[in-house]
Amino acid sequence: MIGLAAQLIDGALGMAFGLVSSSVLLSMGLPPAAVSASVHTAEVFTTGASGASHLAMRNVDKRLFLRLALPGMAGGIIGAYVLTQLPGDAVRPFIYAYLLVLSVLILLRAMGRLLPGREVRRVPLLGFFAGLLDASGGGGWGPVATSTLLARGGVARTTIGTVNAAEFLVTLAISVTFFLSMGLQHLEIVLGLLVGGMVAAPLAAVFVRYVRERWVLLAVGVLVMAISLYQIGRSLLAG
């Protein structure tokens, strides 16, 4: 059920599988390292199903896909090796402050009060940065990549579809790195997440194709704002 709910949100809005599933699993008392490795392993299958579904529904921009996925894989591998060994808590409040600004821009665009900006020129850098954050446990791929592209004028359907499809390769690279460094643990968690996620993936791809872009933008903006405010608040309380 956790995998089903998380993938419905992620496939439709381009983010939050890791955030939703990790938050619930951590609240159940599971070790953070095991949760991160389990979620990323399950995401190999759920993002594969999601990417294939979006491709079948013609939600994927192939040029954008390559510019995001390859640098994202590099960032993910580096993040899994290096950033997991560093105190990432000091950096994350700034990342979520950035996402909070993006959420406001997305909501303004959804209400027709902000004209779409120019195309993001440094997509490879965006992919690398998002992959780096994702591997370090920040759940950065969807929120950073989707939010930035939408805030700069990307079409909701193809942006969400392409980010989901590219996430398959990024997650695969991260999961292989985790597997080589710590092995595969908690197989029952992986199986539960991937079964629920793979059931939800086709439904989410259909949803994002046929729902009006304004409503998708509103949902993304509200979700990103909620994520960023929650994480900033948690960081402040922890400090």
List segments where confidence is low: pLDDT < 50 over at least 5 consecutive residues: none
DSSP strand count: 0
Look at the helices and sheets and give the structural class: mainly alpha
Q: What would the principal axes of the Cα set say about the shape?
A: globular
Q: Which whole number gives the mean pLDDT? A: 80
**What gap, in angstroms, lies between the N and C termini?**
33 Å
- Helicity level, as a percent range? over 70%
How many alpha or pi helices? Answer: 10
What count of domains describes the coordinates? Answer: 1
Give the quaternary arrangement of the chains: single chain
Order of helices and strands: HHHHHHHHHH
